[in-house]
Amino acid sequence: MQWTLVVPVKSLARAKSRLSDTAGDGLRPGLALAFAQDTVTAALACPAVRAVAVVTDDVLARRELAALGARIVQEEPGGGLNAALRHAAAAVRGPRPDSRVAALNADLPALRPLELARVLDAAGEFPRAFLPDAADIGTTLLSAHEGRELHPAFGPDSRARHRASGAAELTLDAVDSVRQDVDTGDDLRAALALGVGPRTAAVAARLLIPGQ
Fold first, then answer.
1. How would you classify the pairing of strands 168-169 and 128-132?
2. Does residue 210 lie in a domain region?
3. Are 200 and 191 in contact (CB under 8 A)?
């Protein structure tokens, strides 16, 4: 069974503010774009993925991610992340109402296609499921079977909120690349240790990261 992934991408100019101690204002937009490019590239290479839809209002992100093969869904203004995901899920299900849909974070630069396939295979056992992030506080993937709504609750403490919403929590070993999102300098170091995609590696090479 294949999935359609919905990937939200924040305006690049406002993205990754928590990386300010690692990347200056001039580098953070490029780093955020590189994260998204490597995430989308890996997702499209996953055998369990039929298509990737990126929801964003950022012009540069739309252009660069469309060039990789992602479908672009225009974000509705003012609704926030969870509203954007609901909108995008509805958009991709318009022509294919039987689609299995999963929301995937855009900041997974170490993402490996076969690890993502393992997560999606496990998610297929439940009407709705989610994968906690490496910190066990947030969420990197939320899935819904055909006929089920995503009911996204991303944001602070999303692991607890998704669990409270009735989604099954996936507990898998050896899927670190799907759990390692990047919000802080420590997160970036952890992703680099796993092995990031080429675009993130190129931008990260311009940073002075202690312990890299």
1. parallel
2. no
3. yes
Structurally, how many domains does the chain consist of?
Answer: 1
CATH for 95: 3.90.550.10
| Regions of the chain where pLDDT drops below 70 | 208-212
Output the pLDDT for position 91.
Answer: 96
Identify the pLDDT of residue 209.
Answer: 58
pLDDT for position 26: 85
3-state SS string for the chain? CCEEEEEECCCHHHCCHHHCCCCCCCCHHHHHHHHHHHHHHHHHCCCCEEEEEEEECCHHHHHHHHHCCCEEEECCCCCCHHHHHHHHHHHHHCCCCCCEEEEECCCCCCCCHHHHHHHHHHHCCCCEEEEECCCCCCEEEEEECCCCCCCCCCCCCHHHHHHHCCCEECCCCCCHHHHCCCCCHHHHHHHHHHCCCHHHHHHHCCCCCCCC
Q: Is residue 212 part of a domain?
A: no
- Whose CA is closest to 70, among 87, 82, 95, 88? 88
Task: Render pLDDT for 31-77 as a digit per residue (tens, 0 to 9).
Answer: 999 999 999 999 999 999 999 999 999 999 999 999 999 999 998 87
Single pTM value for the model: 0.96
Q: How far is Cα 174 from Cα 118, in angstroms, rounded to an integer?
A: 9
